[in-house]
TrEMBL record:
Protein name: SDR family oxidoreductase
InterPro entries: NAD(P)-bd_dom (IPR016040), NAD(P)-bd_dom_sf (IPR036291), Semialdehyde_DH_NAD-bd (IPR000534)
Signal peptide: none
Chain ranges of the Semialdehyde dehydrogenase NAD-binding domain: 3-116
Taxon lineage: Bacteria, Pseudomonadati, Bacteroidota, Flavobacteriia, Flavobacteriales
Domain of life: Bacteria
Amino acid sequence: MEKVLVAGAHGTTGQKIISLLKESQYFTPIAMVRNQEQAERFKSKGVTSVVADLENDLTHATKGVDKVIFAAGSKGKNLKAVDQEGAKRLIDASKTNEVKKFVMLSSIGAEHPEKSDQLVDYLKAKHNADEYLKDSGLKYAIVRPGTLNNETGNGKIKLAEILESRGDIPREDVAQTLVRALHDDTANDAVFEIITGEVLIGEALDQL
């Protein structure tokens, strides 16, 4: 069983990722949380956690970790410090402790932030973090979903390096895609966009 650190574990998507990892026969989740109260909450669910702050050194958080999912975000409140520099800190810590794969939750449109009307700063932060990961030397997968919603997932997506259309996608399906991308035989050094579609997640990733 590989140990997977989930940054942003307490968030809506992060909690779905933790549940999937807990059910997995391949992975064991480690929830990265901001405070002891959140840690106790995960402990009560039988999930190991580590208290760490994306705005500080994260070397301790990646010790003994096999793989990482970055699903943290500041919800627009602290884009540079959290979404950009926090991601970079976790990438650096992952390199230090020789993490085998880093899966980044990014956003559709992060390839060309300047084309966005309203989300330029957010997409710039995502773009910079993505580029840093690409240049890090770590094995990576960068997953760029469309607008997240809380509908029930159907396990089917539309996937391309750059999608011609925009759209929504349930958080459940995003979480499934991120967990599937952890596997060694799929989505290696890959960057792709996803929205709701007609192809099963596993099949879509196998076509990369």
